[in-house]
TrEMBL record:
Protein name: Mitochondrial cardiolipin hydrolase
Entry's Gene Ontology BP terms: lipid catabolic process
One Pfam family recorded for the sequence: PLDc_2
Source species, domain of life: Eukaryota
UniProt feature coiled coil, ranges: none
GO molecular function, one term: RNA endonuclease activity producing 5'-phosphomonoesters, hydrolytic mechanism
Membrane-spanning ranges: none
UniProt cross-references to InterPro entries, sorted A to Z: PLD-like_dom (IPR025202), PLD_domain (IPR051406), PLipase_D/transphosphatidylase (IPR001736)
PROSITE patterns: PLD (PS50035)
Organism: Euplotes crassus
Length: 264
C-alpha cells in the first residue's frame, strides 16, 4: 500500500508515540517507509523528520530543551534538503536499500555471483528469462526447489526446445514453468525476483554464451519501488501464460529426450 503524506505522518506519529525509544522495532519502521514510491521520497523524508522532531518536542518538559531541539531540527532539515538537491534522487540515499550490485559480462565470476543471489532465496524465486542454458544457474535454481522454496519460471517456448536449454530439466524436477508461444509481442525479459524483495534485471540472458562471450549487464537491488513494479509485471505474465504449462516428456525411442508444452 502506498501512503500519502498525511497518512505517513499519522502512521509515524502513532508508531513513535507508542514506542520505547530504547527498544525501537526497526523492522516495523522499515515496513512503514518502504512502500513509498520513488517519486515521493523527498517529501517522505521531510515528513519523517518533521514527525520525529515534533513528537520528541511534545515529550520534552523543559522549554530550554525545546528551543535547542527546534534549532537542531532546522539545521538537520536544511542539511537534508541540501543533500536531496545535490543527489538528484540517488538510490544510494534510500535508507531501506540494503542490497545494491551491478554485474558485467563476460565474466564467469559474475555468473557465480548471480548463482549466489539465486541460492539466497528463502521463501520464493520468480524467474522471467527469455532463455536459460547455463548449467550452473540451472543447478542453483534446482537447489532452491529441492530446499522447498517455491520456484516459478517464465520463458520462451521456442527457446525451451533448443539444444542446450535447461528448461526441460527444471520441469522434470517439478518446477512450475510457463512459456510464451505468442506470435507477436514476444516475452523477451531477463529478470528474477528473490523473496519478493530483491530484483535482478538487465540484458543478460542466462546462457553459456552470455556468460563467456557477450557484453551484458545485471543490476541487483532491493529498492522497493522497482521490486514492486517487477512483481506486478511477473504476476501479469504468469496469469497471461496460464494455459502454457510446460511439461517434461521422456521418449525412449532412439534414446532421445524431449519436452512438450501441456495445455491446461
Amino acid at each position: 500500500m502506498e501512503l500519502g503524506e498525511e497518512e505517513l505522518k499519522a502512521t509515524l506519529k502513532e508508531f513513535i508515540t507508542e514506542t520505547d525509544f530504547q527498544e525501537v522495532d526497526f523492522q516495523k519502521f522499515e515496513e512503514i517507509i518502504c512502500p513509498i514510491p520513488i517519486k515521493n521520497k523527498q517529501w517522505a523524508g521531510d515528513a519523517i523528520l518533521d514527525t520525529l522532531f515534533d513528537t520528541a518536542e511534545v515529550q520534552m518538559k523543559d522549554d530550554g530543551d525545546k528551543k535547542v531541539l527546534k534549532k537542531l531540527k532546522k539545521i538537520v532539515c536544511e542539511g537534508v534538503k541540501f543533500t536531496q538537491d545535490k543527489s538528484y534522487g540517488n538510490i544510494a540515499n534510500d535508507p531501506c536499500t540494503l542490497v545494491q550490485d551491478s554485474l558485467f559480462f563476460p565474466s564467469q565470476e559474475n555468473v557465480k555471483t548471480l548463482c549466489r543471489h539465486i541460492e539466497s532465496a528463502k521463501r520464493n524465486l520468480k524467474i522471467c528469462v527469455f532463455t536459460i542454458t547455463d548449467a550452473n544457474i540451472c543447478n542453483s535454481i534446482i537447489n532452491r526447489h529441492e530446499e522447498g522454496i517455491k520456484v516459478q519460471v517464465i520463458t520462451d517456448e521456442e527457446c525451451s526446445q533448443n539444444e542446450g536449454s535447461v528448461i526441460g530439466k527444471l520441469a522434470a524436477k517439478g518446477i512450475d514453468v510457463r512459456t510464451d508461444n505468442s506470435i507477436r509481442n514476444h516475452m523477451h525479459n531477463k529478470f528474477c525476483i528473490i523473496d519478493n524483495s530483491i530484483l535482478c534485471t538487465g540484458s543478460f540472458n542466462w546462457t553459456v554464451q552470455a556468460g563467456k562471450r557477450n557484453q551484458e549487464n545485471i543490476l541487483i537491488t532491493d529498492y522497493s519501488f522497482f521490486v514492486h513494479e517487477y512483481l506486478e509485471e511477473f504476476e501479469r505474465l504468469w496469469a497471461q501464460f496460464a494455459d502454457n504449462i510446460f511439461e517434461f516428456k521422456e521418449f525412449k525411442k532412439r534414446g532421445r529426450k524431449r519436452s512438450r508444452r501441456k495445455k491446461s
